[in-house]
Amino acid sequence: MEQVVNAVLDLVVPPASMVMLAFAWPTLSFLRGVEWVIKTLTVENMHNKIVLITGASSAIGEQIAYEYARRNANLVLVARREHRLFAVRENARALGAGQVLVIAADVVKEDDCRRLVGDTISFFGQLNHLVNTVSLGHDFCFEEAGDTVAFPHLMDVNFWGNVYPTYAALPYLRRSHGRVVVNAAVESWLPMPRMSLYSAAKAAVIDFYESLRYEVGDEVGISVATHGWIGGEASGGKFMLEEGAEMQWKGEEREVPLAGGQVEAYARMVVAGACRGDAHVKHPNWYDVFLVFRAFAPDVLAWTFRLLLSTASPSPPASARRQLAAPAVPAALPAPPLHPMLEYPSARSPGRAGAGQQHKLE
């Protein structure tokens, strides 16, 4: 009976929801407009407020620091490269920032995160906004990696680099009824090729903060900012660094510049949305259209991207086509492990019921 009910709901609910959404859209748009006006009139005054920004040495983090500086906030700039932070500090002061504290730290290390939050509280006595902008992208297909050395680092920077500072700062943000601002990306729900690990990490970040939003309630605000493609040129490199930290990949060291104008526009939207108390900030907004297709017509979205990617890919030269036409030598697969990945307990005698009752995952 349950299977019949679910089958009927599968046929009825999606089209009915689309019809309801079509009729409700004008009313929802009006209510969102009214909400935006009210929030704009009651925007948070950041004068002398304390803002901690991770990944502040370049790109998105740097521009967000400048936007808070224009609002006369006190800043705590965090990155691994301290010498880059000194230049950002001087620019922020020129734009109107109050006191600016520079801290060299690695946000993928929990001890560093506890230290940077502790230093902030010791110096300023409070914390109002935590802005997590550190991010590490890549431009290679999953099978092109060659080895998995960089995989944990990608997940550490993009996921734990957000979680650890939040964990350390949350008690102080509760005390000040502050806000966490998160730098995510549209790839979290609109995955693109050559960004598989980046997309997975950003999806984990968004799910983490959406769950945390319900746990902290109204005591701490959370603004999740998602951006589309905001510029940059891979220049043959393997990694695209928003935070600007160096990353070694197959003996190469690459830093990829982002397009300044779009990064500045995105930073303005992030800070303005955070000060209004927006739960979500998106740049640009038209990417939301793909959410409807992904929910109700995923095949159409998949066909569209396959068509676009196939037409955008340049055809290989004739010499390459001849090489592809030749019979390929099958690549040697890795040898199976000497020991199984899962160790199961051996058969137990009735007298040894307590022995070997746990499964071990190596």
TrEMBL record:
Membership in a protein family: Belongs to the short-chain dehydrogenases/reductases (SDR) family.
Membrane-crossing residue ranges in chain numbering: 12-31
Designated name of the protein: Uncharacterized protein
Predominant location category: membrane
A Pfam match: adh_short
GO cellular component: cytosol; membrane
Alphabetic keyword roster: Membrane, NADP, Oxidoreductase, Transmembrane, Transmembrane helix
Subcellular location: Membrane
Region (Disordered): 340-362
Gene Ontology terms, MF aspect: oxidoreductase activity
